[in-house]
Amino acid sequence: MGKIKSKLVKKTSGTLIREGIKFEENFEKNKQVLKDIAPSKKIRNQIAGYAARLKKQEKLEKDKKMIT
């Protein structure tokens, strides 16, 4: 049940990715990117984790397309 993210986290992550902020698959590096952007520590960590998960999914989908 811990993987449920709020609409705020999902919308904000999507917006930041579209704006060109470079997220990685690494949670710790994403936290550093969001250090000055996020309003609170809790929101920052949630956005960093969700963005890391999105990047991992993108990589998996890209790898699947290359195999087929």
Could you name the CATH topology?
Answer: Diphtheria Toxin Repressor, domain 2
Strand percentage: under 5%
Largest sheet: none
Structural class: mainly alpha
In the residues, how many domains can be counted? 1
- State the total count of DSSP E strands: 0
Q: Given this structure, which CATH class is correct? A: Mainly Alpha
Sketch the topology as an H/E string, one letter per element: HHH
Regarding quaternary structure, how should these chains be classified?
single chain
Percent range of helical residues: 55-70%
Q: What would the principal axes of the Cα set say about the shape?
A: globular
The CATH architecture name reads Orthogonal Bundle
Short description:
This protein has about 70 residues and is mainly α.
